[in-house]
Request: fold
Amino acid sequence: MSSYIIILTDICGYLGSLLLAVNSVPQVIKSYKTKSTKDISYAYQCFILSGLILNTIYSVYHNILPIIIGNFIEFILMFLLLLQKKHYDKQSNLDKV
Reply:
């Protein structure tokens, strides 16, 4: 394969991973600003985190760096969202008492 096509596909891989990784940023920011995560389910977050872990294992085994980097960024963002959910749900329950 020519080096031009390899470079182009690498750019696509990194750009695609970056876009997928930062898709959680608006939700993390909104949750922080509104101090609410009531519309986000734990099941959703668990499925996403599980998929990220499995996909990262696959990517590491096959040494697919764009996917590894993207998954790492998205894992951090989803973990932050999970912490926000746990904190804000706890706050919400305390406010009801």
Remarks:
- The longest helix spans residues 65-96.
